[in-house]
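Pipeline run #58 for the internal structure catalog. This entry was flagged by the ingest filter as a single-chain record with no existing model, so it goes straight to prediction. Upstream metadata was stripped on purpose; only the residue string is passed forward. Reviewer on rotation: M.T. Logging verbosity set to normal.
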Amino acid sequence: MLLLCLIFVMLGLILGFAAQYLKVQGDPIVEQIDALLPQTQCGQCQFPGCKPYAQAIAQGEADINQCPPGGEQTINALASLLGMESKPLNTEFGTIKTPAIAFIIEQDCIGCVKCIPPCPVDAILGATKQMHTVITSECTGCELCIAPCPVNCIIMLPRENKPSEWQWPAAHD
């Protein structure tokens, strides 16, 4: 029994060493591409999120001009990173829009919770038969919550800038 325990301890140490020193690193180009994408997770590029789209670009399975939320700025940055020539946005995937956030009209919300599951960043807060609200600092403006709403109480409002960039008035002393 002692010999068997000793063997298991040795195997555990070997596995721990292998996991620490022999791990496969992620593809750095995928990480660089993903960092340039807007992280809206909207699926407009026909991929379930920005990371899968970045992987497809790195593998040559997707073009750099499939991201409407990123617009021309993202396309130019991707082209520069990959040493490619920039190209216009492929309108098959959508058009460039003003950055926006979802807003729930409170008096119209019936609390059906149908808007919560499609939100890729969990920016909608609410419970069954209770009014819902959007956490604006988390909302990416992907518009995936609009279609499932049976009472059309979700609208998109233009985002002037990110909440972290909002300028608050100075306190009066």
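catalog note: The mean pLDDT is 88.
catalog note: The chain is about 30% helix and 10% strand.
status: ready for reviewer M.T.
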